[in-house]
């Protein structure tokens, strides 16, 4: 009888805790109005696509366990969809956002409400358009705080500062894309990088709007750094200040200090900064890490950390003292980029799968499509070709009649096939001198099926076709563990022995070392259609993508929920 009473009391306490959790969770109801607004940068004003008239768009601040209902109203002239980058969207691919993958786009004059719940996630994520190049200006931060009463696994910072790194074109980004699609050549590189939407002191007509962050001596702040850039990995640093890395892609890390971080498109990195230097003004700056043999934007964006008690100049030329500039690596400093990523570790023992059910090997890289008339204005790539990109020689083509998820749910044939190859169709020296006969990929809309709760390992192997490069590969609907990486060709006999299966970093976007490989593992516990793609948007448009179809498990709680009634029509 006593044990029964004890059990009932414990159950009662558990029930109280559950209802307290429900009571603390909030529903955030917002409207995102997609509309053109005049935005002036680099001396010129452009009609840029914005959210609620803001560039960058509004920051969403929520807590683990909260729900969101965000109605996107499209008042622009382009089709659009919004992706909530890094949100797992458990059993709810309908809210993920990539056009023609989980939904058809929201047409001009139409709207769609994204409804989703934050489930066991906290940290820095972000949201952005997932329709062609609209994300050049349509993006913003998504900050997930711990549940009330749940502390950070590090000392609480005084305050948070979102740092959104972007790219700016001195013309309509959609026109830049349209020109590249017509010619088959690489798109023109950006004209500036930005910090929170502003280029900074080193660009024309930009000094007055340079972002400034006042800081008090001795205080510790958390910089939530997001690379929202379209096509470029970046080095980021703050002059004379150490950065303590505590999180990447909404996953806590073992803290370590560094002078510089490398962050790829789509990735987020949280760092703690303590104002322990002589009162003054200090630049934070970002510029390119360019691992490819390709043109890039070789400019530098800046913002200013200003101590509130910084001295001013006296006498003639009175005013603020000039900011101190940080030491940034060279644009091709792969050693520094690699040293940074190799230091990342999960903050405790990671629940990484130890056994593997699906062992996949994906080559990722560029390619060239031959033209019957190499002198055509539509064949302006190298030697009269058109640029392409692929995974396992399959260059992904978006469907147009229906989204893959809707076709899968409805059993509609003819939209996609499920024969994506688990390994390259031909083995070759991936990082060596590759025969020109292997440079042209095959176009198609192919998916790979995974059983529910399968343990999956993917080795992503860069190739030297056209050029080796760091490809930031993003997997929708999942976080994964980065268990190993290296340069050269992956060796399945010897390299797995060096895998870190204890505390590998957890990410949603990982770069392939240029001319190397990276191995990831995850459990396929989220049913639906989930795209994996390079987050360099030029490469995504060329076909560097594929789709996983994760089958339902048993019962309602392991199956995709029904689509919402307002899902955009195709």
TrEMBL record:
Residues 1-25 form the signal peptide. GO terms for molecular function: copper ion binding; hydroquinone:oxygen oxidoreductase activity. It is found in: Secreted, Extracellular space, Apoplast. It catalyses: 4 hydroquinone + O2 = 4 benzosemiquinone + 2 H2O. Keywords: Apoplast, Copper, Glycoprotein, Lignin degradation, Metal-binding, Oxidoreductase, Repeat, Secreted, Signal. Its EC number is 1.10.3.2. One of its GO terms (cellular component) is apoplast. CDD domains: CuRO_1_LCC_plant (cd13849), CuRO_2_LCC_plant (cd13875), CuRO_3_LCC_plant (cd13897). InterPro entries: Cu-oxidase-like_N, Cu-oxidase_2nd, Cu-oxidase_C, Cu-oxidase_fam, Cu_oxidase_CS, Cu_oxidase_Cu_BS, Cupredoxin, CuRO_1_LCC. GO terms for biological process: lignin catabolic process. Its cofactor is Cu cation. Residues 35-147, 160-309, 419-553 form the Plastocyanin-like domain. Binds 4 Cu cations per monomer. PROSITE patterns: MULTICOPPER_OXIDASE1, MULTICOPPER_OXIDASE2. Lignin degradation and detoxification of lignin-derived products. Belongs to the multicopper oxidase family. NCBIfam families: laccase. This is Laccase.
């Amino acid at each position: 009888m006593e044990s029964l009473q004890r059990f009932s009391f414990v159950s009662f306490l558990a029930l109280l805790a559950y209802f307290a959790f429900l009571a603390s969770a909030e529903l955030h109801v917002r409207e995102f109005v997609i509309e053109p607004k005049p935005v002036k940068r680099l001396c010129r004003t452009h009609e840029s696509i914005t959210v609620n008239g803001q560039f960058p768009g509004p920051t969403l601040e929520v807590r683990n366990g909260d729900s969101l209902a965000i109605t996107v109203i499209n008042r622009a002239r382009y089709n659009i969809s919004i992706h909530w980058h890094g949100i797992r969207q458990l059993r709810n691919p309908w809210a993920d956002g990539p056009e023609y993958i989980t939904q058809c786009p929201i047409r001009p004059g139409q709207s769609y409400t994204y409804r989703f719940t934050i489930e066991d996630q906290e940290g820095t994520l972000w949201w952005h358009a997932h329709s062609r190049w609209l994300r050049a200006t349509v993006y913003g931060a998504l900050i997930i705080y711990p549940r009330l009463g749940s502390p950070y696994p590090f000392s609480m910072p005084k305050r948070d500062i979102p740092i959104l790194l972007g790219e700016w074109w001195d013309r309509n980004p959609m026109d830049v894309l349209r020109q590249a699609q017509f010619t088959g050549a690489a798109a023109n590189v950006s004209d500036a990088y930005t910090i929170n939407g502003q280029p900074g002191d080193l660009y024309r007509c930009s000094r007055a709007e340079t972002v400034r962050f006042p800081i008090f001596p001795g205080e510790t702040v958390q910089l939530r750094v997001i690379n929202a850039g379209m096509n470029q990995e970046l080095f980021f640093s703050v002059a004379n200040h150490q950065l303590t890395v505590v999180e990447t892609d909404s996953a806590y890390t073992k803290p370590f200090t560094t002078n510089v971080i490398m962050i790829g498109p789509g990735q987020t990195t949280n760092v703690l900064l303590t104002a322990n230097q002589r009162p003054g003004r200090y630049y934070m700056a970002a510029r390119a890490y360019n691992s490819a043999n390709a043109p890039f934007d070789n400019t530098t964006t800046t913002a200013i950390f200003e101590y509130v008690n910084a001295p001013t100049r006296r006498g003639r030329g009175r005013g603020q003292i000039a900011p101190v500039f940080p030491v940034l690596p060279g644009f091709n400093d792969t050693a520094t980029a690699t040293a940074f990523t190799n230091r990342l570790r999960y903050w405790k023992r990671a629940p990484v799968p130890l056994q593997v059910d699906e062992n996949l090997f994906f080559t990722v890289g560029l390619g060239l499509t031959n033209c019957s008339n190499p002198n055509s204005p539509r064949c302006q790539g190298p030697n009269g070709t058109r640029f392409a990109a692929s995974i396992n020689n399959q260059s992904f083509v978006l469907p147009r009649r229906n989204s893959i998820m809707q076709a899968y749910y409805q059993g509609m044939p003819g939209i996609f096939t499920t024969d994506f190859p688990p390994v390259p169709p031909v083995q070759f020296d991936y990082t060596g001198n590759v025969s020109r006969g292997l440079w042209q990929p095959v176009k198609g809309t192919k998916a790979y099926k995974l059983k529910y709760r399968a343990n999956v390992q993917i080795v992503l192997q860069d190739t030297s076709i056209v050029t080796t490069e760091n490809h930031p590969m993003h997997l929708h609907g999942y976080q994964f563990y980065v268990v190993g990486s290296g340069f050269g060709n992956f060796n399945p006999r010897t390299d797995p022995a060096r895998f870190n299966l204890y505390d590998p970093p957890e990410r949603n976007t990982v770069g392939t070392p240029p001319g190397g490989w990276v191995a990831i593992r995850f459990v396929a516990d989220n049913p639906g259609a989930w795209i994996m793609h390079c987050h360099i948007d030029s490469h995504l448009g060329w076909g560097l993508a594929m789709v996983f179809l994760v089958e339902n498990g048993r019962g309602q709680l392991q199956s995709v929920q029904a689509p919402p009634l307002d899902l955009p029509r195709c």
